[in-house]
Give the backbone structure.
Amino acid sequence: MAMAMDAFGSVFGEAKPPVTIRMRPVLFHAHAHAHTDDVSQLRLLATDLHSLAWDRSLSLSDIDDLRDDVGIGGSCSDFLDYLKSCLSSGE
């Protein structure tokens, strides 16, 4: 599973709120982060470069919980591929 996390790589993007919501765009960075030699995490950072900053590290257990909440079946590796694809899509 740690190999799937390492294969995640790094994704940069911009989350664009709907036009009807008056909000600044939010820039984000998601990447695999080696917490220790045997524990990898997915780290997510986001900011509007004005007043908002957010940082969250997800353990493999957190990712499994998120996969269950989203309702995506398959392996954790498949879910990480799905997550990377969603973050990379630019939508």
Observations:
- The longest helix spans residues 76-88.
- The two ends are 28 Å apart (CA to CA).
- Helices lie at 2-6, 60-70, 76-88.
- Residues 2-88 form one domain.
